[in-house]
Write a structure and sequence with these properties.
The chain has about 500 residues and is mainly α. The chain has helices at about 1-5, 10-35, 40-45, 50-55, 55-80, 80-100, 105-115, 120-130, 135-165, 170-175, 175-190, 205-225, 230-255, 260-265, 265-295, 305-310, 315-335, 335-355, 365-390, 400-430, 450-470; strands at about 430-435, 445, 475-480, 480-485, 490-495. It is found in: Membrane.
């Protein structure tokens, strides 16, 4: 069976295509993470307040959350390479135009254009599953996961250096050539997907999804500022909930639904989507705490610069770079379920230790803190690699774009809720601090160690619950065999 299966794939092409999909996270993380240290400079140049400048991040996420579902469906209908290039074209255009924005309003427009390109990831995951031999898929997914961490660690200190010496616009000018090169490589190397599922675009479903997603994300983003019980927040949440219910009802009866409820609600896809959402939520809360702990002055943190903070996260990236490909190689032998369970428990234990000893970390236990967040990052990476493989081997290729698009949608929800909840917790447990050299009447809020205990402790509980959820997964690979779901049925493939 192995020989027969390999004849269906061009291994030389698979290796060339692997280069494209593995470099993709480096481009996106380089572009997005470099923006973070540039936000204060953007705020100063356009004379906007901190709440306004946060929309540079929010508008990208709002547009991207809808686009991942829409482009995933279009990829199944018209070809995943075609839609991948269109999405990457949006992303590249946005990156180029961002650096030339003449006003803050134009910057928001060009960031929205870039947001359409967020769909490149679910489409790339779909192409990996569809065009790569099953035995290669876990390894490629592992390498993709590793590149996310590496891209983040490279981009944060580099972005701070570029912004400081050349200005925030050069964070985009420096990324634009790489985006153009990536588009050219994808156009030349990738082949069109072999599975196409023609049909009509579900525009009503798309509109209902937008009304469910956008008000929810706007409400979550603004809630820490205006209040969770404010009228604005409650109205936005109400619109989102009603629209979500109407969306589900419409999709159940639609002839060609944007997101087939029957596919994403089956056991494995449903568990993976919930798992990825809460994992993203826990990661976002942890990262929020890490940022403050690294950069706040003792005794409230380690007092490091942005550049130093990025360098201190290098061990986590290096470990991920080593662990992720090894995990991808072990998955078919050991099974996705045991590795996912190991990852969730590892992350939970590491976060639990951080929650217990958070008051004792600054300023004398810097390397203990670095070691613990590296342990947590390793666990999260193991879990994510396993879950994405469970998803792609539980859904037939004809619906892969829809499945991975829906998964990205759930991930974005978790990533948005995490910082909002973290911000609320840090605003609840704080002390007033007078910065050295500031006017006598100037005081800023500094999160207390209790805030870190709550943040890390909550994240630890989340990953413990995810470990229990993982137990309900139906195994898709073990003992050197992969349970392959094809359009025409299911079969086991030697790996």
């Amino acid at each position: 069976m192995e020989a027969t299966k390999n004849m269906e794939y061009d291994l030389a092409y698979a290796k060339r295509a692997m280069l494209v999909v593995v470099l993709l996270p480096l481009l996106v993380m380089y572009t997005e993470a470099m923006l973070t240290p540039a936000l204060p400079t953007i705020q100063e140049e356009f004379a906007v307040n901190p709440n306004d400048v946060s929309w540079v991040l929010t508008i990208y996420l709002l547009v991207g959350t809808v686009s991942v579902a829409l482009f995933g469906k279009l990829g199944d209908m018209y070809g995943k390479k075609k839609m991948f290039l269109i999405a990457l074209g949006f992303y590249t255009t946005g990156v180029i135009l961002n650096g030339f924005a003449p006003s803050f309003q134009w910057l928001l427009v060009t960031r929205a254009v870039q947001g359409f390109g967020m769909a490149i990831f679910p489409l790339a995951f779909s192409l990996v599953r569809e065009e790569f031999p099953p035995k290669m898929v876990p390894q490629v997914q592992g390498m993709i996961s590793a590149m996310f961490g590496v891209g983040m660690v490279i981009a944060l200190p580099l972005g701070a250096w570029v912004t400081q010496n050349w200005g925030w616009r050069w964070t985009y000018h420096s990324a634009a050539p790489f985006a153009v090169l990536m588009f050219f490589l994808a156009w030349r190397v990738l082949r069109e997907s072999r599975y196409i599922n023609p049909g009509k675009v579900d525009w009503i479903g798309t509109v209902l999804l937008a009304f469910a997603v956008v008000p929810m994300l706007v409400g979550v983003t603004r809630a820490p500022e205006v209040g969770w019980t404010a009228r604005e927040t409650l109205v936005l949440f109400s619109v989102a909930v009603v629209s979500a219910l109407l969306f589900v009802l419409w999709e159940k009866g639609a002839e060609n639904p944007l997101i087939p409820i029957g596919i994403i609600s089956t056991r494995n896809p449903a568990i993976v989507n919930v798992g990825i959402m809460f994992a993203a939520f826990g990661i976002s809360m942890m990262n929020q705490a890490n940022t403050y702990i690294f950069q706040m002055m003792p005794p409230y943190g380690f007092g490091k610069t942005i550049l130093q903070s990025g360098l201190l996260m290098t061990p986590m990236a290096l470990v991920m770079l080593i662990v992720a490909p090894i995990a991808g190689k072990l998955l078919p032998k050991v099974g996705a379920k045991p590795i996912a369970l190991t990852g969730a428990l590892t992350a939970s234990i590491g976060l639990g230790i951080l929650a217990k000893y958070a008051p004792q970390l600054p300023p004398d236990h810097l390397w203990a803190f670095v070691g613990l967040i590296t342990l947590v990052g390793t666990g999260i990476n193991l879990m994510n690699i396993s879950l994405i493989n469970v998803l792609v081997f539980s859904v037939p290729p004809r619906a892969m774009g829809v499945a991975t698009g829906a998964n990205s949608l759930f991930r974005n929800f978790g990533s948005t809720w995490g910082p909002a909840i973290a911000g609320t917790i840090m605003s609840t447990y704080y002390i007033l601090f007078h910065p050295p050299g500031a006017p006598p009447d100037v005081q800023i809020k500094i999160p207390t160690t209790r805030a870190y205990e709550v943040l890390f402790g909550t994240s630890a509980v989340i990953f413990l619950l995810l470990a229990l959820l993982i137990l309900a997964i139906r195994e898709v690979m073990k003992g050197g065999r992969i349970h392959d779901v094809e359009n025409e049925g299911e079969k086991d493939v030697l790996a």
